[in-house]
Amino acid sequence: MSALIELERVGRTFPVRSDTDKRIHDFVALEDVDLTIGAGEFVTLVGPSGCGKSTILDLVAGLAEPTSGTVSIGGRPITGPGLDRSVVFQQYTLLPWRTAQGNIELALEAKGGLNKAERASQAEEYLRLVGLADFANRLPGELSGGMKQRVAIARSLSVQPEVLLMDEPFGALDAQTRELLQEELLGIWERTGTTVLFITHDIDEAVFLGQRVAVMSARPGRIREVVDIRLDRSGAGDHDIRGDIRGDIRGTQAFAGYRHRIWNLLRERSAGSVGRREGVASVA
Ligand SMILES: Nc1ncnc2c1ncn2[C@@H]1O[C@H](COP(=O)(O)OP(=O)(O)OP(=O)(O)O)[C@@H](O)[C@H]1O
Where in the chain are the domains? Predict the structure, then answer.
């Protein structure tokens, strides 16, 4: 697999005012971060609150610049946002006055290159991909949280980005909808071959989705270890997105082993800032 995204010795500092002497000083959010993501790979990034996950995503999205080191895509330094990368945030960012279909068409209009009929047909196709073909004419206010997030994912995918950047996209959803959308996202990833960088607090979510899980430590934010996930995902993709969850890989011993390993990696460095019991899967 060829490298698509590369972070090399990346550092990022922010000027902040000290609590004690009120002077401005540099807060080191990221230090010496190295991470390579292959074309078509699904990488999850997990770590304690404030360790710099969103900062990494912002750098790859081109919304911020590193203070040191380089962030590149396809061998070229990232200098700003681009149509090759699409971002899905935790909060649904749909325009409330446009229908599900209208929101997607708007993204396609911004991208350019398609006429009105082509935009409409592409929007329909992506709504179908996320199981919302029958909700095309609903306004966001008439959709559930999970449906809104599916529209946001469809919108991001409709512009056919090389890379999908997801910042806790399922964080605001109930547990059942969250698991359903995780299943759905994996299916979409398998079908489209899009490269995905997915941020989460949730160890189970990281293990379930990622081909590799990059585990971060905090203060300063660093990649502590990248764990290869090898789970038997046979049967992936042949599920019904409206309810029939595929064989529950989360219940296997292999899954528990990865959960345990990642939990320990997080606990070693951030004892005190994470949950106390091992059974707690979230580190937020
Ligand atoms: N604009 C900013 N100015 C000052 N400090 C910032 C700024 N943005 C982020 N930080 C700090 O950088 C660190 C990393 O923040 P970031 O949002 O990337 O963490 P995170 O791992 O995504 O956290 P969470 O999981 O809680 O969302 C935090 O300590 C945060 O306070």
Answer: 90-160
